[in-house]
């Protein structure tokens, strides 16, 4: 595990350095929006999604450096979705990763626009960064198309709509699965596929990595739900029990802790199984699953 | 003029039909967000920006049909920016084109997400639609990059940040120009350039069309400011005097009506001048300038 954390730390450092270079300086006019972008992007994210993009490219035999812009774009999209989810009209959260949320610091108008700005910057980065890295134009286009679809009403946004609407009323297990697949799964899947496609993975490798991404996202979501019940607020950097307070449906509230743990273990097993045949190049991804299975933050 | 309106109506019909085909059906799960997308997209827009995209492609000798997805993407981005601008945390507008704004009908959460969804759909359309139309991948990439940049903190969002911040305090003429160039000009410029680039315009034609787009956007914004003072609420589909009530800075409030008219005329003249040498293919664009110079809605 400490081996994985060291590898993750190296990828995190790479992503953080690139994000710092890609984001406009905080004092560029109009300064408030650029401060807001940097505030949320550098609020202590684990950079798990971009790390998966880098690792998937490596599995395909492509240097991580070439997909660094795409990895950063994925992280910008993740950050944008968190800023908008936290807004008063949505989940109305005051804290995120132990720090006041964007709208608490900069006000609602700037927080909405900061999310919008990160979203547009992500697409700028995907295209400009991909071009500058010398990636094939058709591959970049495919990735832009898939990421845009993952962010739309069949992905991130559809999931968030249902999540907001479902709060406080009864829902069926199938609906919870739809919400999580859309809200969390789609971006994990897109993160892995972006690295694989840009890295030039062959069809079989791409298929395996896609299945991996889907199960990994599911396992991540279930453990996230579990941690909100069983986790430690200080380690997590956010209050526990917020799902219950917000009447949010989770794998724990719908299936109970025991069944949620069983499903998390099963998703982890499927994720590892999908990597079989990919050899030592997939070591980071295998360890990432172990990390998810045992994570406490 | 009636000649131009007939040509515009033909382009509007083409764009409306395509938008109807590209937007998910209103009853697709989750229905509320798809209803919200269609509500705002079909709220009576003039489709001026997409018409410019189609016309610029035609100047480059490319069939309009091939850039229809890009034209629609531009309109989706325009609609997204209106939905977010109207939000209570921003301009807090209840009416847009004579109809209740998105957040008045669907609530703030869905309105924020509807804007986000239109933005992601725009990028999906640019890439998928461009690929299906058989456009060159490198040209599509350039357009995605330019449109994303036009939507960012140096364009749409930067302009909106300054607009929100400037309300109610003194600003210099240079700041007003920055706001309008970013908030309105960037998307007009991108709309024209998208058509020209995807249509394969040669460098000189692209340069001329770019200058045209910049001056056209400026002329549009100044006449928009003038109409808020001198226009008729029924013809406009929105209350007049809203800029003054919201303490918004306009070309009229900063320079007076006489000087604003002079600047609008000058911008129109520069826009027409930029088209010189492009021959009969640019007839629609020339007439579009006359339309802006005399428009009352």
For the terminal residues of chain A, how far apart are their CA atoms? 14 Å
**Which stretches of chain A of 5+ consecutive residues score pLDDT under 50?**
none
What global shape of chain A is seen?
globular
Helix segment count of chain A?
Answer: 14
Multimerization status: homodimer
Rg of chain A (C-alpha, Å):
18 Å
What portion of residues of chain A is helical?
over 70%
The biggest beta sheet of chain A is recorded as:
2 strands, antiparallel
What is the fold's blueprint, element by element?
The structure is a homodimer of 297-residue chains.
Chain A lengths: L1 H21 L8 H11 L6 H12 L8 H19 L8 E2 L2 E2 L1 H5 L1 H25 L4 H15 L4 H11 L6 H26 L4 H28 L2 H4 L5 H4 L5 H24 L8 H12 L3
Antiparallel strand pairs in A: 1-2
Helix pairs in contact in A: 1-3, 1-4, 1-14, 2-6, 3-4, 3-9, 4-6, 4-9, 6-7, 7-9, 8-9, 9-10, 10-13, 13-14
Question: Can you walk me through this structure?
Answer:
The structure is a homodimer of 297-residue chains. Chain A has helices at residues 2-22, 31-41, 48-59, 68-86, 102-106, 108-132, 137-151, 156-166, 173-198, 203-230, 233-236, 242-245, 251-274, 283-294; strands at 95-96, 99-100. Chain A is mainly alpha-helical. In chain A, α6 runs antiparallel to α7 (137-151) and α10 packs antiparallel against α13 (251-274). The first copy, chain A, is globular.
Short description:
2 copies of one chain form a homodimer. Chain A is mainly α.
Which features does this protein show?
homodimer, 297 residues, mainly alpha, two-stranded antiparallel ribbon, 2 strands, 1% strand, globular
């Amino acid at each position: 595990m400490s081996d994985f954390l060291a590898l993750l730390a190296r990828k995190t450092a790479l992503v953080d350095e690139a994000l710092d270079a890609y984001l406009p300086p905080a004092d560029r006019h109009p300064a408030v929006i650029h401060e807001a972008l940097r505030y949320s992007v550098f609020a202590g994210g684990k950079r798990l999604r971009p790390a998966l993009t880098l690792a998937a490219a490596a599995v395909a035999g492509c240097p991580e450096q070439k997909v660094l812009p795409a990895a950063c774009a994925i992280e910008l999209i993740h950050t944008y979705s968190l800023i908008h989810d936290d807004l008063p009209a949505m989940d109305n959260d005051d804290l995120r990763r132990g720090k006041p949320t964007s709208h608490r610091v900069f006000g609602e108008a700037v927080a909405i626009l900061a999310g919008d700005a990160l979203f547009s910057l992500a697409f700028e980065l995907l295209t400009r960064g991909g071009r500058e890295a010398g990636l094939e134009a058709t591959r970049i286009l495919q990735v832009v198309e898939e990421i845009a679809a993952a962010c739309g009403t069949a992905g991130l946004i559809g999931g968030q709509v249902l999540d907001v609407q479902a709060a406080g009323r009864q829902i069926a297990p199938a609906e919870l699965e739809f919400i999580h697949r859309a809200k969390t799964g789609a971006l994990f899947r897109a993160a892995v596929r972006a690295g694989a496609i840009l890295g030039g993975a062959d069809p079989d490798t791409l298929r395996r990595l896609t299945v991996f991404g889907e199960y990994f996202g599911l396992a991540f979501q279930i453990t996230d739900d579990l941690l909100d019940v069983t986790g430690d607020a200080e380690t997590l950097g956010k209050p526990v029990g917020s799902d219950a307070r917000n009447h949010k449906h989770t794998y724990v509230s719908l299936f109970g802790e025991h069944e949620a743990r069983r499903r998390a273990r099963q998703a982890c097993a499927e994720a590892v199984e999908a990597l079989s045949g990919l050899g030592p190049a997939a070591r980071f991804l295998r360890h990432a699953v172990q990390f998810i299975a045992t994570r406490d933050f």
